[in-house]
Specification:
Elements (H helix, E strand, L loop, with lengths): L1 H9 L1 H31 L7 H44 L2 H7 L1 H42 L1 H48 L1 H6 L1 H54 L5 H38 L22 E10 L6 E10 L3 E6 L5 H8 L7 E6 L2 E2 L5 H5 L2 E4 L19 H10 L8 E2 L2 E2 L6 H14 L4 E5 L7 H17 L3 E5 L11 E6 L2 E5 L1 H17 L1
Parallel strand pairs: 3-10, 3-11, 6-9, 9-10
Antiparallel strand pairs: 1-2, 1-4, 4-5, 7-8, 11-12
C-alpha cells in the first residue's frame, strides 16, 4: 500500500523498530500459549511456583504489546503532523490560478476529512499489523503441534479471509465514492454559510438549495456510508462466526478423526481463541486503512507545487525606476476570456488609476501586474531587464495590495516580517480615523470584526505597514462613505506619493480622476491610456450626470 510505503521511506528505522517490537509481542503471546500448553494442559504442573512465572509472562506480554502499539501510534501521529504541514506549505507555494481552479471547498475537505481519516488509520494500524504478525506466528506454532490439522485449519481460515476481503473490497469502493460526495457537501456548506443573508431574504431560494442541492448530496452520502458500514459489519461477523467454526472443526478432527489427542486440540482451540480478537481487530481496522489510502490518493490529485521546506527569501530590487509589461497575454482555460496583449510602463512614484467596466479584465491585469498570475506569453521587465521564473519571488516583494475580497490578518509587520514601526502605525491610524476603532496589543490587532469600510481601512494599514514600493488598491474606496472617500483621494493618496510609493488604483470614482498622474482603461481585455480630450471626457462624466439629475 502506497501510504505505508511513504511512511517507511520517511521513517525507515523507527518503522523497522516498531515492527520488531510487534514481532516480539507476537512471539511472547505465542510463548505464553506454549507455556500454558506445556505446564497447565499437558504436564498438569501443580507447583505453586508456576503462578509467578505465568503472571510474569503475562505482565511482560502486556508491557511489550502496549509499547509496540504506542510506538506505532506515535509514529503515525508524527507522520500525519508532517503530512499536514507539507500540504499547507504546498498550498502556500502553488500558483494562485491553480488554487482558484481547485476551490476552497475541496482544499478544506482535504485538510479536515482527509487528514482526519489518515490520523484514524494510524490509530488503528497497530491492530492490523499485530493481527497479521500474530496470525503468521500462530500458524507456525500450530504447524509444530499438528501439520495435518493446520492444513485443514489453513483452508478454513483462507476461506474466512477471502470472504472477508471480498466484503472489505466493497467497503473500499463505497469509501472512494464517499470521498467525492464529501467535496460536494463541503461546497454546499460553503454556499449556505456564505450566502446566509441572501437565503434569509429569499426563502424560496433557500428551499430550492436545501431540497435539490444539499439533500441530493446528503442522500448520496447516506447511501454510500450505509453500504460501507453494512459490508464492514458483514466482514466482522463473517470473521467472528468462521473463527468459532474453526474451533469446532479442530475438536472434530481431534476426537472424531483421531488426528490428535485432546490436549493438542485444547491448545489449538486456545490458540485460535487467542488469535480471534487480533484477527477481528485487523479486519475491523482494514477499512480505516483503505479510507486513509483513498484520502492519501485524493491529496495527490490536487497537483500542488512540490514541497520545499524553505520560503522564498529573494530580495526585492532596490531603487528601480521603471516597470514594464511587454506583450503580456493571459486567458482562462482553453477558449476562455483573454486579457492582452498588455503593454504598460510604470514609473517609480507614479499615481495611476485604472478604469473599465465589469468583466473588462481590470482585476486580471492587477493579478498579472503583481505576478500572482503567470501569463501565457510576454515579459515583465524591471529597468529594461526581463524577469525569469526564478526572479518572480523577488519581484512580488515590490507589492502590497488590498484586493476587493480583502482578507484581514491580525499582525502588523514590516517588509522583513518584523513588528511594524509603532510610530508609523499610529500616524496611519490617525490618517485612517481608526485610532478609536482598533485595539492593538503590540503589533497584534485584537478586534477584526469591523464594518466593510473599516475592514478596508485596516487592510490599507496592513499594506502600508509593509513598507513596499508599490501599492495596489482594487476598488478600495467603493466601501467608504462620501466624506472619507474624499479624504482618500485628496489626502491619503498624496501622502502615499510623498512617501515615494507607486500607487496603482482600480477605481470607478470619476469625480476624482483628475488626481491621477495617468488614467488607464481596460475594455474587453485590452488596455489603453486615456490622454487629452479622452481623459477630460472621462473625468467630466460625473459632472454631466450630476447636472442632468
Amino acid at each position: 500500500m502506497e501510504l505505508l510505503h511513504v511512511v517507511y521511506r520517511q521513517y525507515r528505522w523507527p518503522f523497522v523498530g516498531v515492527i520488531c517490537l510487534s514481532l516480539l509481542s507476537a512471539a511472547l503471546g505465542i510463548g505464553l500459549i506454549a507455556f500454558i500448553n506445556r505446564e497447565l494442559i499437558t504436564s498438569l504442573n501443580a507447583s505453586l511456583l508456576i503462578l509467578p512465572e505465568f503472571l510474569g509472562l503475562l505482565l511482560l506480554l502486556m508491557a511489550v504489546t502496549l509499547a509496540s502499539q504506542l510506538a506505532l501510534t506515535l509514529l503515525g501521529h508524527h507522520f500525519v503532523y508532517r503530512l499536514r504541514g507539507e500540504f499547507i506549505k504546498r498550498i502556500l507555494d502553488t500558483q494562485i490560478e491553480r488554487i482558484e481552479q481547485i476551490g476552497s471547498a475541496q482544499l478544506l475537505a482535504a485538510l479536515t476529512s482527509d487528514v482526519r481519516n489518515i490520523t484514524i488509520a494510524f490509530v488503528r494500524l497497530p491492530e492490523l499489523i499485530q493481527g497479521i504478525i500474530l496470525t503468521v506466528g500462530s500458524a507456525a506454532y500450530l504447524a509444530w503441534l499438528s501439520p495435518k490439522m493446520l492444513l485443514v485449519t489453513t483452508v478454513w481460515l483462507t476461506i474466512t479471509i477471502v470472504g472477508g476481503w471480498l466484503l472489505v473490497a466493497k467497503v473500499y469502493r463505497h469509501m472512494a465514492s464517499l470521498r467525492e460526495v464529501e467535496d460536494a457537501l463541503y461546497a454546499d456548506y460553503q454556499t449556505i454559510i456564505e450566502g446566509r443573508k441572501e437565503l434569509a431574504l429569499n426563502r424560496q431560494r433557500a428551499q430550492l438549495i436545501y431540497d435539490t442541492v444539499y439533500q441530493e448530496d446528503a442522500r448520496s452520502y447516506r447511501h454510500h456510508i450505509v453500504r460501507a458500514d453494512t459490508f464492514h459489519l458483514s466482514a466482522v461477523n463473517w470473521s467472528n462466526i468462521m473463527m468459532l467454526g474453526a474451533i469446532g472443526l479442530v475438536f472434530f478432527m481431534a476426537n472424531s478423526l483421531g488426528w490428535a489427542d485432546t490436549a493438542i486440540a485444547a491448545t489449538y482451540s486456545l490458540t485460535l481463541l487467542f488469535l480471534r480478537t487480533p484477527l477481528l481487530s485487523a479486519v475491523g481496522a482494514l477499512p480505516t486503512l483503505l479510507s486513509a489510502q483513498v484520502a492519501f490518493n485524493k491529496l495527490n490529485t490536487f497537483k500542488l507545487a512540490s514541497y520545499r521546506e524553505e520560503f522564498d527569501a529573494a530580495p526585492a530590487k532596490q531603487n528601480w525606476q521603471t516597470l514594464e509589461l511587454r506583450d503580456l497575454l493571459f486567458h482562462y482555460g482553453d477558449g476562455g476570456f483573454a486579457v492582452g496583449p498588455i503593454n504598460l510602463t510604470l514609473k517609480r512614484g507614479e499615481l495611476v488609476f485604472l478604469i473599465g467596466g465589469n468583466g473588462s479584465g481590470k482585476s486580471t491585469l492587477a493579478m498579472l501586474l503583481t505576478g500572482l498570475y503567470q501569463p501565457v506569453s510576454g515579459q515583465i521587465l524591471l529597468d529594461g531587464k526581463a524577469l525569469d521564473v526564478a526572479g518572480m519571488a523577488g519581484y512580488r516583494r515590490l507589492f502590497s495590495a488590498v484586493f476587493t475580497d480583502v482578507h484581514l490578518f491580525d499582525r502588523l509587520i514590516d517588509n522583513h516580517g518584523a513588528p511594524a514601526d509603532p510610530a508609523q502605525v499610529q500616524r496611519w491610524l490617525e490618517r485612517l480615523q481608526m485610532q478609536d476603532k482598533l485595539r492593538l496589543e503590540g503589533n497584534k490587532v485584537l478586534n477584526l470584526k469591523l464594518s466593510k469600510g473599516q475592514s478596508k481601512r485596516l487592510a490599507l494599514l496592513l499594506a502600508t505597514a509593509e513598507q513596499r514600493d508599490i501599492l495596489l488598491l482594487d476598488e478600495w474606496a467603493a466601501d467608504q462613505d462620501p466624506h472619507f472617500r474624499r479624504i482618500f483621494y485628496r489626502e491619503l493618496l498624496p501622502w502615499l506619493k510623498e512617501m515615494g510609493k507607486t500607487v496603482f488604483a482600480i477605481s470607478h470614482d470619476d469625480h476624482y480622476f483628475l488626481h491621477a498622474d495617468r488614467l488607464l482603461e481596460m475594455r474587453e481585455g485590452h488596455l489603453s491610456e486615456l490622454t487629452g480630450e479622452e481623459r477630460e471626457l472621462a473625468t467630466l462624466d460625473a459632472v454631466k450626470r450630476t447636472g442632468s439629475d
